[in-house]
## 1
Amino acid sequence: MSFEFLHPISEDILAEVESLHKSTLGKQLSFHTANDFPDLTEIKVAIIGVVESRRSVRENDVPFNFNHIRKEFYKLYAGNWNERIADLGDIYAGDSVDDTYFLLKQVTEDLLNRSIIPIILGGSQDLAYAQYRAYDDYGQMVNLVNVDAQFDLGDTEQDLCNKSYVGKMVVNEPYNLFNYANIGYQTYFNAQEEINLIDKLFFEAYRLGEISSDITLAEPVMRDANFVTLDVTSVAMTNVNPSMPNGFSGKEICALSRYAGISDKVSSLGIYEIQDLDLTKNSAMLVSQILWYFIEGVNFRKKEYNNSFLKEFTKFTVPLENEHLIFYRSELSGRWWVEIPNSKNFNNKLNKQSLLSCSHQDYLDACNQVIPERWFKAYRKNEI
């Protein structure tokens, strides 16, 4: 069992939990201690740290851990939550980076098989590749949403690193990545060739200013994700990151985290590049609040995507010049979806008609004969 290789929570951290108020998270979590591993039967969310950053392009040999984040997270009070949470401790760097990848993939896969949502605290973002590989036996292709100032497509001819892991997902077999969506890219950090490639592959990219102007644009994108990765250096330096003058505010990054949590489809979250933070109390508090908002979202999932939409959704058919778009509105949440027709020649594990998350504005645009861009890209990928 892969859990045998996890290292327990520090005794010093656990000692501090004893003095916390009974309603704090520290008093409600299940912990992996030196003497005990939690019963996972009723656990819904599991936190794992991964102390690995050897494939980061930034030279940073300063040792790091997640103790500051854990201290701040345990102090927070739970919301009106029903789901059980466990902190399973840390994966330490293996003899080789590939050893770390292998163990992270196995731990993530074992948790997914138990219907437990892993929250991975990283280390360098190349660890997202191991997170992705945990879905190799998922049975269908998966969607990734990455909150990041850069696309991280990189040079796929070179070794995997924290600036090329997305490119490796695209080119390495087995091919499981159906859609990649970047939220928060900053144009001057990305080569024009990469911007063009994102468009050519019918992937999605949303600029920082676009999302900051209307954070709700991210909700349908997150709703379609199977797994989410978040680069904490995408937060502006005024909050936690001295190397990033522009970026998301603390409020915006927490809103994005909650959108990820409330998505019925998101089954794992990775929060990466923590080793590059100036881990002051302020930055540790922000990461702990990103965790809190994700778990808040999980606790308020509608679980409507698995319902029969013929019963739970209202259907709207919009005639266009050469197409009929079929929209569905949930009577439970008021959220919208649009149907992607299946191509006869399509064989990439989706193998069925699927619903694409959208907004009410997309429906209104379609009524005005404007095809939603997300629908167009998904439809074109179906034809490839």
## 2
Amino acid sequence: MLQGYRLFDADAHAMMSPRMWETLPQEFVARRPRPTRVHDVADMGRWTNGWLVEGQIIPHALGPGSQPGNEPARVLEEFGAETHSAEFPLSGFDLSDTGARLRGLDYMGIDHQMLYPTTLYARMTNDPAFEAALMRSYNRYVGGQCAAAPQRLKWAGLLPLRDARQGCEALAEMKELGAAAAVVYGTAGDRLLCHPSFTPVWDEFARSGLPLCVHMGMSYPPFADVCNGLLAAHGIGMSLPAQMAFVAIVGHGMLDRYPNLKVGFLEFGAEWMLYMVPRLDHYLPIDRSQMPIKTEVPQRAVEEYAKSGRIFIAGEADDKLLPQEIELLGEDQILYSSDLPHGEGRHNAAKEIIARKDINERQKQKILYDNAVKFFGEP
């Protein structure tokens, strides 16, 4: 609790750790991501370490596929990088010490926290079988670590889509391990989430009762390839695929085919909804009249789906248009997120929401706690 408000953090992260791949099938062990360090560092700044994955070092700041963060915490520590505060040490970031994570939550006043993988999982490999194996190994690690405090440490399991058999098996496994949601990125490679090849996974997912989380990440290869710097990565490569997911889910009839599906969009603010919803509704009458397959267009106005209580958005604490977001979506669908321990995550995100003068006390409590309970369920 913080300043009298209960906090349910809808978006935080477990930093990557070599322990996340301890349960990889033997056939993939030699290909596992490995922490590595660049030794020619004269002009590298802080970009001197990363993960060696499928022949490339990620993250990197320059060249195609540039993206920020997610350095190996252990490598940082071993090479003398400054660790974070004693209240929230590196050992809590990657969940190697769940006690340290809980002490960090206590320090910040967070009652419950929803954990996601780092965004590197959005584009580690082009091999669907290896991708699924990495995702399932991550799920086992995080599920096992969060089991020490299941009411406070909630987690979303990675859902592989490009291998339908693995996707269905991963879904059953994550439920057994205690996942509170499933998470995907904005695209699965170069395919929208509504692609027919994913239907067997979505059919099974609809029966699971879990909420679906769409997280920002550099999942769409053409966007990734044109990003030659970090600002482009944030503005294009990582954010636009998640908006593509909104179009795929709402604009291609998935909410009609799966009437109990609830979807949350995380870590790229909510201001984009003020553009996207009216833009889609502008074209909807034309597209509805011209589409030969009527199930491929939404049956209602996109704004109706946005207000239906099935779409949740994790806005940023400093979104300047938060009152307008509430007007569009309703006050019951905006989520609070810290994004910790990523670099843009701020220890005072909840404090910023509490201090805002343009929303009322009821709306603050809903954003900080109540809406997450509506989406994820009671802790």
## 3
Amino acid sequence: MPSAKPLAGLKVVDFSMAYAGPICGRMMSDCGADVIKIEPTRFSDGVRSNSRIFTHFNAGKLGVQIDLSSPEGQQLAHELIDSADVVIENYRPGIMAKFGLDYASLKPQHPSLVYCSISGFGQTGPDAQRAAYAPIAHAASGYDVAHMGAQIHASPPVLARPQASGIMIADMLTGAYAFGAIQTALLGRVTSGLGDHIDVTMLESMMTLIPGHQQAAQVVDAPQMGGFLPITASDGYIMACVVSDKNFEGLCTALVRMDLHADARFDRASRIANVRYLVGEIEKWSATRTVVECETHFNRHGIPCSRYNSAADLFDEPQLQHRGAFTRNEDEAGEYFVQNLPFQFASMDNATTRHAPALGEHTDVVFADIGLDKAAIAALRERGVVA
């Protein structure tokens, strides 16, 4: 029988919207925390325009609306935080201070509070006020240029301009770092009794993806980075990573091409520089075989290999089905799936909650929990303080 989830009993007040903050909050919820999502009364989380994406980022949370620009609304937020363990916010630096809800304002009354601020460039510094979305962090961090540099191995090389950005890597990565940092602060609180202010940036989160490039930029004649190219099959592409000498021996065996083993272009020191030529030799074999045939054959010979899946392919992937990677959900348009946490605990149910809160759905329940009766909540709603 599944045991209690590891964060059961923790209360999180989540002021964040869009992606990075909300995915952190959802991870907290999936691990058992009670997460209250606070949205303003004058507008809502813009992700609500796509209900399924909103569910992905906010499943399991309680939803309330508060006018944080009003003194009464700020007081209500303070009362919610009185019993909270964690606050998450991703407003532009300085906004929470205007509401009296920044860490410096809360710390004297709540010394054990773990307060996580997520932003593009940080809470202080010359760029603190710069607006940022994930593609800005991709560009500013050096990631896009590093990724562009990897295309030098393509045939022909593609170096003219960075690739278009359509995947919010920075949001998901920053949310995961925020989640980990919060757990670290909570663990530290066990011994110190004190909380902390966590300042997480999309910029620095993205920078962690290019450590080799950072080090190469500091030396003369740095070794070439990269060395992995898509390989053509008869019905698509595969990726194969020939890294170790054992991988290369397996490749030569799989292709029945032991002559490649004696080719100086493909020894360990030269393989990356000559990867285009190696791929050309592989494609003499792979171009007449399907991606499934290539993947199966290479993996059998100890060569790390995968076909290129689309997002739609993932729902039928046997390994993901075995792991229970998705929770089945349903809305007015039909059935759909939401991905669970990418890690699993042996002792608990790892499925995410199916329900994401409607706008202000739990306002009455949440404020009743802090002692407000129905008449008081109705009066607040009539004055526009809550919705």
